[in-house]
Amino acid sequence: MKGQKILNYSFKKSNQSITLAAKPKSKSDSDFLNTDIDPQLMFQCLTKAANGLFENTSEVFQYELSSVPSSIFDCNRLPREACKSNLADAIWACGSDCIHEIDGEGFRYVLDGGSLLQRLPWTHGDSFGDITQMYVDHVIRKYKDPVIVFDSYPELPSIKDITHLRRTKGIISPNINFTSSMPCKTKKELFMSNSHNKQALINMLCDKLKDNDIRCKNATDDADLLIALTAVDCALSSEVVVIGEDTDVLVLLIHHVNQQCKRVIFKSDKMAINKKMKIWNIQQTRGFLGEDVCFLLPFLHSLTGCDSTSRLFGIGKGLALKKLNQEYMKTQGKFFMDNKSIKADIIKAGEEALTCLYGGLPLEGLNILRWRKFTSRVITGNTSVQVKSLPPTSDSGKFHSLRVYHQCQKWMSEEVDMDPTDYGWEIKRGKLCPILMDLPPAPDKLLNIIRCNCKQNCDTKRCVCRKNGLQCSVGCGECRGLNCSNSVPIAESDFTDE
Asked: Residue 318 has what pLDDT?
């Protein structure tokens, strides 16, 4: 610019200094970095750069150091999908000898309506009246005096919006205004992917079931709690068999059924192939688990991942079930089952519970545990540290804890009316989405590192790093701060002959 008129001078875009913080934002409403950035690559770049910028690298581990909290979210920002059946398998392994086949008669049946809808295949070209009649005939033929409990799909945002999106894989059929005489010309899976269509079919099916003197109940949203409470109510006067496949229903039955109820059995309607079908005697299951574990089972299930909360990478439900027998873990869990707990206590108890699951020490905290596990694996490992294998930060962990508390309270009572946006959720495009974190992915000191994209040796002023008097870093596009003339000089070691 020297010697030139300012009005005649123009800045070239090629001379612009680009920082990590200035990279293009994603198309989503998120305030974080582009989701196209691989979280693992970003983590490796930032930890490498931090090693030369911070005297104490432990302070950077209060940040996720990646575009998403990788231990609880996939790189596409969706919560990690829960392996719910693993909890049922872990409980079964603890006391399968106590569970027997159904014997005797006089059972009342409670059916999971969602499971029933998925159970029977449709014939292409059948009318919707024929389809609903097929369900009615199936129920009359197999079950005596049943009560069928259906989900509801309101137009309002729901904490299961993300789960519904994942199940449909983003493919949703248009709204279909059908009558009983209208033939179904679309595939069942595609038809059921639209909540409007599914609700209309449930309404038609309920009308036909009631015409045949079959009791139906409709939940205000998710039916799992209503199924369990209906079973408890029926068990006051007769023995009950609950038909369903969802682990959520099993967990809620174990939590809500008490020893004063008559026998409650939980079984699947599926035909087992090459293996014995699991038939759960709920009272006997409660006996070998113990009262404390049964009371805290919804907390354990939601903490380690259910339909509304994320799975913790590398933390199995079987391991968590064993740790729930520890008094320290039980103490933290009781905060989540208490409807009077305040947010500060929930966040603190959630961090302690997560620290315990990841093998940390009491009162250590997630940030210190995260740094300690990273350094331990760097010293002892022979492969790169996977960011998803580290515990979440305290920042992202607090939102996970709030979502866990919200789900626990929804499973405790039908009368709970809590605003999800106060407990780790936010509304985006008319749907409830989980909040990932409050803090940026890394400290400003790291995000503002200037990066060049030189194709040559970075030995001229065209290199923006050299131009700004900085050495190339691992964030640079081509040289990665390793193989150019502007790299950090490597000190030669002095070797002496022995």
From this structure: 93
Per the structure block, which two tokens stand in for 32?
A: 């974080």
Give the three-state DSSP class for 426.
strand
Helical axes 224-234 vs 247-256, angle rounded to 10°: 40
Mean pLDDT score of the chain:
86
> Are β-strands 450-451 and 18-19 bridged in parallel, bridged antiparallel, or unpaired?
antiparallel
H helices within 340-490, ranges in order?
343-357, 366-380, 394-412, 444-447, 464-467
Interval 369-400: pLDDT, tens: 999 999 999 988 788 899 999 999 999 999 99
Nearest residue to 335 via CA among 325, 317, 348: 348
Residue 239 tokens read as 């023995």
The model's pTM: 0.84
Strand pairing report for 108-112 and 146-150: parallel
Burial level of 14, CB count in 10 A (0-12/13-18/19+)? exposed
In angstroms, what CA-CA distances link 138 with 172, 198, 234?
28, 19, 22
Strands 215-218 and 108-112: unpaired
